[in-house]
């Protein structure tokens, strides 16, 4: 149990289904979230009073792609009990600033705070500070997978940028051999992020940084720029990093005691129409992912995309006291369910996270139904 002056933060990855009953998605997790003081998610969609679902015989399962969705479908967030969402995502500006601003206003009207997006760069990079039991928790959010023009500027709405660039290096002399892709963070963006974190740390006990980044669908692989950004964030004063975008869980890395980077939390409450697009199966094969269209027609991104996790962090005025995760499995009806120790799927998902984290500093210890994350033990005599 948390100490008397501690609060519990729970965080999850991508939320934004387009199919079915929005209230039903939280059926198996709302009671878990009710035990937390703050619950965070990444918003993957846009919501607008002017949007409507239409199609022949629409029955609640007509696919509408990436939105915008009707305003009432934002209830997937209220039903689950989220307190704060990041809108620093690659879809936020796809339908222009007005729809994104309307989405943010809808969240705020429902008492859900928005971070990582704003009417200008200053707003997009401003922290949201939530206070619970005298513990002040600052949230910042950035996006690394941005299309040109989607970033906030001094005089234009958009998302907070943490961009990266790619260059290619020959690794074999033989013609036709694959080249190595090397990614590097944008210097201006990383400097701004560092400044934002330092300023937030001066006003809060704990700083949580959300990053929409990485390589989608591909299991395990972490881009070169990601550990560089993570290290810079922690050096600036961040206490916890919550990553997302790849739609599959990825490595957990410790940067000192109780400072964890979750490179990707994967899907949580999510559905999509990508399986209907021509060439989808071949596309997933290029990612070495077997599309599971028969069992998961509304989210067919492979077996690993149906694994998920909930970050469970104990926070106090002293910082992060303890960080763990709750293994989650997403059923074919796309409802996430927290797994209990002793469930064979619990063991499979923990083993997957250990495999995904190979090469990154971590140690997992099971305590009841949670998995406590800590740095790996230093061998004796070293």
Report on the structure:
This protein has 382 residues and is α/β, with parallel strands linked by helices. The protein has one domain (7-374): Metallo-dependent phosphatases (Purple Acid Phosphatase, chain A, domain 2). It has eight helices and 22 strands. The chain has helices at 30-33, 75-80, 97-109, 121-124, 187-203, 225-236, 280-286, 344-356, and strands spanning 7-16, 38-43, 47-48, 69-70, 84-86, 113-115, 117-118, 128-132, 135-143, 158-159, 164-169, 180-185, 206-212, 240-244, 252-254, 260-262, 267-270, 307-316, 319-330, 336-338, 363-367, 370-374. Strands 1, 2, 5, 6, 17, 18, 19, 20, 21 and 22 form a ten-stranded mixed sheet that branches. Strands 8-9-13-14-16-15 form a six-stranded mixed sheet. Helix 5 (187-203) packs parallel to helix 6 (225-236). The longest helix is centred in the middle third of the chain and has 17 residues, at 187-203. It is globular and about 60 Å long.
């Amino acid at each position: 149990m948390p100490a008397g002056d501690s609060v519990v933060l729970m965080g999850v990855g991508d939320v934004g289904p387009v199919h079915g009953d929005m209230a039903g998605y939280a059926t198996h997790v709302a009671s878990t979230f009710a035990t937390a003081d703050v619950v965070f998610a990444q918003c993957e969609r846009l919501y607008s009073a002017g949007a409507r679902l239409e199609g022949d015989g629409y029955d609640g399962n007509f696919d509408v792609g990436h939105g915008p969705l009707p305003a009432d479908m934002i209830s997937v967030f209220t039903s689950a009990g989220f307190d704060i969402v990041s809108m620093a995502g690659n879809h936020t500006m796809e339908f222009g600033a007005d729809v994104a601003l309307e989405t943010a206003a809808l969240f705020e009207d429902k008492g859900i705070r928005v971070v990582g997006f704003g009417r200008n760069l200053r707003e997009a990079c401003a922290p949201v500070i939530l206070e619970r039991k005298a513990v002040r928790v600052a949230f910042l959010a950035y996006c690394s997978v941005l299309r040109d023009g989607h970033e906030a500027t001094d005089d234009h709405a958009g998302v907070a940028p943490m961009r990266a660039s790619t260059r290619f290096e020959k690794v074999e002399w033989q013609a036709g051999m694959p080249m190595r892709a090397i990614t590097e963070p944008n210097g201006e963006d990383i400097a701004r992020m560092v400044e934002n974190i330092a300023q937030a740390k001066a006003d809060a006990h704990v700083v949580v940084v959300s990053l929409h980044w990485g390589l989608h669908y591909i299991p395990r692989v972490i881009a070169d720029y990601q550990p560089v950004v993570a290290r810079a964030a922690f050096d600036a004063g961040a206490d916890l990093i919550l990553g997302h975008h790849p739609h599959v869980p990825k490595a957990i890395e410790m940067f000192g005691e109780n400072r964890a980077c979750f490179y990707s939390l994967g899907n949580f409450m999510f559905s999509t129409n990508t399986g209907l697009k021509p060439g989808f199966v071949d596309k997933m094969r290029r990612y070495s992912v077997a599309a599971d269209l028969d069992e998961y027609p509304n989210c067919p991104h492979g077996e690993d995309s149906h694994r998920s996790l909930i970050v469970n962090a104990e926070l106090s005025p002293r910082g992060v006291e303890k960080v763990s995760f709750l293994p989650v499995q997403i059923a074919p009806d796309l409802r996430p369910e927290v797994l209990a120790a002793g469930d064979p799927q619990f063991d499979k998902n923990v083993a997957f996270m250990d495999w995904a984290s190979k090469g990154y500093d971590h140690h997992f210890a099971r305590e009841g139904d949670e998995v406590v994350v800590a740095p790996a033990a230093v061998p004796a005599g070293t």
